[in-house]
Amino acid sequence: MAKTLMIVDDSATMRKIIMRTVRMSGLEFDTIEEAGNGVEALEKLNASPVDIVLCDINMPEMTGPEMVKKAREMSSCDNTKIVMVSTESAQETIDGVMADGANGFITKPFTPENFQEKLMPFMN
């Protein structure tokens, strides 16, 4: 089945690194979208929902946790899985975004195996 992915990070370089690492994980997506912040991501999600979002926490204009809360209010995102990808590793931060509606958390630095482990359950 065709799967779509969106990578949300304010760093274009980090988006490319995440994209390359996802490809190295062996997971295949038909479409990969990019967004530079939460506002841009929500606009794109409203226009065309995606299956999985990989989202940074610390971004200008709208943070990752704010984006998660707003995405969970959108009917177009009812089936979207959101996995946070961040250098933030405090348990309270992780618990907070999970309570806001995130489906998973990957801590930077990451490996292809991290993406395989966290995203594989959402690939069916």
Outline the structure in words:
- The protein is of the alpha/beta class.
- It has a single domain, classed as Response regulator (Rossmann fold, 3-Layer(aba) Sandwich), CATH 3.40.50.
- 40% of the residues lie in helices and 19% in strands.
- Helix 2 packs parallel to helix 3 (64-71).
- The longest helix is centred in the N-terminal third of the chain and has 13 residues, at 12-24.
- The model has no long low-confidence stretch (mean pLDDT 95).
CATH class assignment: Alpha Beta
| Main pleated sheet | 5 strands, parallel
CA radius of gyration: 13 Å
Biggest sheet: strands side by side, in what order?
2-1-3-4-5
How is the CATH topology named? Rossmann fold
CATH superfamily: Response regulator
Mean pLDDT: 95
What key phrases describe this protein's structure?
single chain; 124 residues; alpha/beta; Rossmann fold; five-stranded parallel beta sheet; 5 strands; 40% helix
Q: Could you give the topology of this structure?
A:
Blueprint: E1 4-8, H1 12-24, E2 31-35, H2 38-47, E3 52-55, H3 64-71, E4 81-86, H4 91-100, E5 104-107, H5 112-119
Parallel strand pairs: 1-2, 1-3, 3-4, 4-5
